[in-house]
Structures are given as C-alpha cells and as structure tokens.
Amino acid sequence: MIGNEYSKYNLMKGHIMDFNAIINQILVLFIVLFLGFFIRKINIIDEHASKKIASLVVKVTAPCLIINSMMKKTELGNREILQMLGLSIAVYICMFIMTFIIPKLLRIEKNNIGVYRFMIMFSNVGFMGFPVIESIFGKEAVFYGAIYNLPFYALVYTLGIYLISMDNKNNIKFKIKDIFNPGVCAVIIGLIIFSFKLNLPYVATKTIDMISSLTTPLSMIVIGASLAGIKIKNIFSNTKLYIYSFLKLLVFPIIILIIIRQLGFNEIMTGVPVIITGMPVAANAVILSKEYDGNDILASEGVFISTMLSIITIPVLVFLLSN
Prior knowledge:
The protein is an all-alpha fold. The protein is 77% helix and 0% strand. The radius of gyration is 19 Å and the shape is globular.
C-alpha cells in the first residue's frame, strides 16, 4: 500500500515540479484537436470519414485501451482495490443523481438533455485523467486510477449510449445482447486478465498497446472535425456550457474532496476521485454521438469549452489537494 507519508511527499513534489507537465498535456490535446479542425476544413476528411473514425475508436481502439489499462501489474492488496472501487461506485451514483438535477437548474432544452446528462457523468479519464494523476502522484498511482475507472468502462457503453441516443428520434432500445458491445466485452476480458494475473505473449501485449495508443489522437481529431462545422462565436456564446463547466470542473470535485477527507483515506485515494471528477468532458461524448446519432455538435462544444477551462481549474484542484 502506498502510505500517507509517501503520497503527501509525492503530491507536493508533483505540485511543484510537474505543473508544466499538466499544462503541456492539455496543450497537446488542443493541438491534435485543432489538427482535426484543420483537416476537416480543407476537406482531407469529410463527415462520412469522421463518423467512420469514430466507429473505429468505439469498436477497436478504445476497447484495446481498456484491456491495456487493466494489464498493469500492481502490489496493491485486495482491501485497497475494493476501497477504490467502492469510492468510484459511490461517486458515480452521486453524479447520476446530478444528471436529473443540473439539466433542470440550467433549463436545458428537451432535445439536449441526454448529452448534458452524459457530460455530467463521464469525464476524460483515459486521455487526460491518467496523465494528470501520474504528473501529480507518480506512476504508482496510475493503477488506482485504473481501478477507479472500472465503473466508467461498464457504464459509458451501456448507460452512456442510452443517454446519448435519448435525444434523437430513433431512440435506441436496448436488448440483452446489445449490452455485450466491444467496450463491455473489453472490460470482461480485462477483468479476467487482471483477476487471474495472466501474462499474455509479448506480441499480443505490444499489439494491444500500439492500437490503444491510437485512441487519444483519433478521438481529438474527430472532436476537431465536429467543431469545423460550427461558427466559432457560437461555441463561446453558449452560457449554459460555462455554468455547466464550472459545476463539473470545480464544484463537484471540491464537494467530493470535502466528503472523502472526512472518511480518512490517504492522499492518493482522496486525490484520484477528485482529479478524475474534475476532468473535462469525456471525448466519448463526441465519439458515441457520431456513432449513435446524438448531438455531436453540442458534445464537441462541451469537450472544447471544458478542456479549455481545465487549464485553470486543474491547477486549482492540485492546490486544494496539496493543502
């Protein structure tokens, strides 16, 4: 188990030394996003190609990312793993409750409620959460993030798809067989590998790792391509997105920080839920909107605005965690 002394030291070290790494991680995502915007504007890819890339991410690269994250070795005991998983489930239940409250408070239009509910629940964990956690706490903490992320993988490809599709006229009605989509199957495979501590052949692990590394750049390219069809002034004029982002990036994680600190967990087990909750909107919002005919324009705006504002809010969360 990673002790309090080590975690407190590493938190402060990350806060002082790796602040630039956090900012750089966000800037890299923006650069790739703008690349997607540019290549869509000059018609290197069109709407059809963008949707096909989104489908590739949902069905191939993202499942490989899930399996890859669950192949990591750890010295954590079962008690710490169950505690981390319990914290994650509790936070997701709270966020699910918020999906009914926030849209009403913001008076969201009926045909956009599903996307907003998705954006409230799901954060950018794999693309930003893990790198930021590593920058703050060190590599040892990444596995805490992987355990915390298990409900995300199970929910985003079930409940998430339902939320995304609930806004369109062809609302998807799930059947039992639909639950076993590539994302959920990847979670099952990953759990088997993790539970039985299976060692896959080098060729298999290297292939999975290589394919999973495509997820972030392809996702950000799709987001940028979606933004290419929007007037820039429209992106910055949606005041509801700013209010939502303030709640998502600061209010919710601060509430979680206050509650978890009262429970007496160490700094890493406190910090991981706070940081992940305070991440921008999951890129899956756009990818799944493309795949299941949701409002991908609104989802792209949400990802863009929340990611932009996270340049300010993530350092604030780091400061609060270090005190």
